[in-house]
Amino acid sequence: MEVNLLSGALGAEVKGIDLKDSSEKNWQLINLLMLEHKALFFRDQDITCEEQINLAKKFGPLERHVYVKGLKDHPEILRIVKGAEEKHQWGETWHTDVSYNPKPTKVIILRSRKIPPVGGDTMFSNMEIAYETLDNEIKKKIKGKKAIHSSLGAAAFVDKYTEMEGNGNLDEYSNEHPMVRIHPETKKKILYVNSMYTKKIIGMDKKESDEILKNIFEHQERLDFTCRFKWTENAVAIWDNRSTQHQGLTDFFPGRGLGHERIMDRIAIEGDHPQ
Ligand code: SIN
Hints:
Blueprint: E1 2-5, E2 12-15, H1 24-37, E3 39-42, H2 49-59, E4 62-63, E5 78-82, E6 107-114, E7 122-126, H3 127-132, H4 136-142, E8 146-150, H5 154-158, E9 174-178, E10 180-182, E11 189-191, E12 198-201, H6 206-220, E13 226-229, E14 236-240, E15 244-248, E16 262-269
Parallel strand pairs: 2-3
Antiparallel strand pairs: 1-2, 3-14, 4-16, 5-16, 6-14, 6-16, 7-13, 7-15, 8-9, 8-12, 10-11
The protein binds succinic acid.
């Protein structure tokens, strides 16, 4: 086995592990590596939908997306499709998946099926380091505080994307989570707000809340907390959605990535109530 770090902050490309193998022994190794590096990347893994599902089930019960329809034969798999002429990419600003849910996603397994010749990399950011390096005054102000996370409604997940289909749910969801959560496995502190879904700090007036959140969001965007993965076809990313944020880069500019499809298969594993 070979583990090559993608940056000093997080992320590792792993060679010598076969993701078709969902045995307990193989999963234990993958889980340990994921807890250590937070985001793992594997190339040349031509796994079937069933193999992706089998591996995902080792992490826990699978989660269905609240707004987007899964594949007909494999509803656990959400196919993220960027059409050839689309200028947007699903998940195109920093976020933690579905943090508006009461139990946001634990782990994501994303498999590439079709990748443009240029553009569409995914970036990841380490929210443990973001907490450790946060200004002490802000740490004091948010100690013990919760924030509201709100979903953006079905439109945000399907209307912008011509190839994505909604599942008919039009409800909106809001849930409160601690701004600093403890990772249930590593027991490390994680800065748990994100600019896509976190709207307000509970028990603070809006002006102060907006100011603190703005400062935190800027801090979370520091490039030295990140790594960047350049996709190839049949690559798989497995990341810890509790301790990271990610964004799919929308750099499909005319004459470059535009005119190409990008297709990814996503499986989400259910998380727990952030504590
Ligand atoms: C996501 O935000 O869930 C997907 C990111 C990507 O497709 O690169």
